[in-house]
Amino acid sequence: MAAKIGKNKKFDVDNANVEIRLLKKLMEGESEGRERIVEFLDSFKFRQHVVIIFEHLHYNLYRYMKCNKNLQ
Fold first, then answer.
1. Which pLDDT score is estimated for 27?
2. Residue 26's pLDDT is what?
3. Alpha-carbon distance 67 to 39, whole Å?
4. What is the rounded CA–CA span in Å between residue 33 and residue 31?
5. pTM above 0.90?
6. 3: phi then psi, degrees, rounded to nearest 5
7. Is residue 36 domain-resident?
8. DSSP string across 18-64
């Protein structure tokens, strides 16, 4: 698993909550034949920080692009 931990500032918490809503909405679309890039697993608050849990991927996007020479 991989965790994305947001800052505990109001702006960042609000953005994380929007991100979670969007991720949940995208998960609903999977049954319509859409594929995801990364799987959203869960989210929770820890000491006022929003934590979003994803599946662990081998590469991050930057490294994937670099390995595939897609960087311009």
1. 82
2. 83
3. 22
4. 5
5. no
6. -115, 135
7. yes
8. HHHHHHHHHHHGGGGTPPPSS-EEEEEEETTEEEEEE---SS-HHHH
